[in-house]
Amino acid sequence: MSFDTDEFYRKEEFFNAERTEKLNFHYKEIIKLLGENPEREGLLKTPLRVAKAMQFMTQGYYQDPEEILRSALFKEDYRQMVIVKDIEIYSLCEHHMLPFFGRAHVAYIPNGYITGLSKIARVVETYSRRLQVQERLTYEIKNCIQNTLHPLGVAVVIEAQHMCMILRGVQKQNSVTTTSDFSGAFEKLATREEFIRLISSRLH
Ligand SMILES: [Zn+2]
């Protein structure tokens, strides 16, 4: 993936000063409400760190995924399936604000236009860095590609583990939730099966 998240995280200008200050204040209150002392040495800088981490994990609200795709549209007659497999996902479930993480597999069949492969990963990244449910994340990635590239079809499969399930022991520790969404040509069984076959060596 061309998008270097570590580098992004180090960029101080990314964090909005006013938001950081307010989040810092509220996280200090939260620490108190949890029964801890925010003035003790180990916790002194924690509210500020969390304020920055949370802004990093929700940066997708300030990015436009359709614009990311439009910035790299190329006219091309290729009309076979284009697959980007194993895109790493780190997101936050909107019900518990706990991480869910896994991999996305995205395919489309061009209809006159293609986009840079790294842009597909950027779209996944942008929607992931918001408060999400896995089902909507899947659907939003599909819609974004469909609405921007107007391909013959889009397929998205996401497999992820949810900390809110793992921590509470609702299901087994290693349970994986799989969601999928298809449009256009992928609504045909044969096309969908080809896509599943091409990604299935890595599917759980
Ligand atoms: Zn949850």
Structural class: alpha+beta
Which molecules other than protein and nucleic acid are bound? zinc ion
Order of helices and strands: HHHHEEEEHEHEHEH
Provide the spatial order of strands within the biggest beta sheet: 5-2-3-6-7
Indicate the proportion of strand residues. 15-25%
Give the total of beta strands.
Answer: 7
Question: How many H/I helical runs?
Answer: 8
How far apart, in Å, are the first and last alpha carbons?
Answer: 22 Å
Low-confidence runs: 1-9
Helix content estimate: 40-55%
Largest sheet: 5 strands, mixed
Radius of gyration over C-alpha positions, nearest whole angstrom: 19 Å
Shape: elongated
How would you state the average pLDDT, rounded? 91
What does this protein structure show overall?
The structure is a single chain. By secondary structure, the chain is an alpha+beta fold. The protein is built from eight helices and seven strands. The strands form two sheets. It has a five-stranded mixed β-sheet, with helices on both faces. Strand 2 (82-93) and strand 3 (99-109) form a beta hairpin. Helix 2 crosses helix 3 (46-57). The two termini are 22 Å apart. Residues 1-9 have low confidence and may be disordered. The site of zinc ion has 6 residues, from loops. Residues 93, 95-96, 98, 162, 164 line the site of zinc ion.
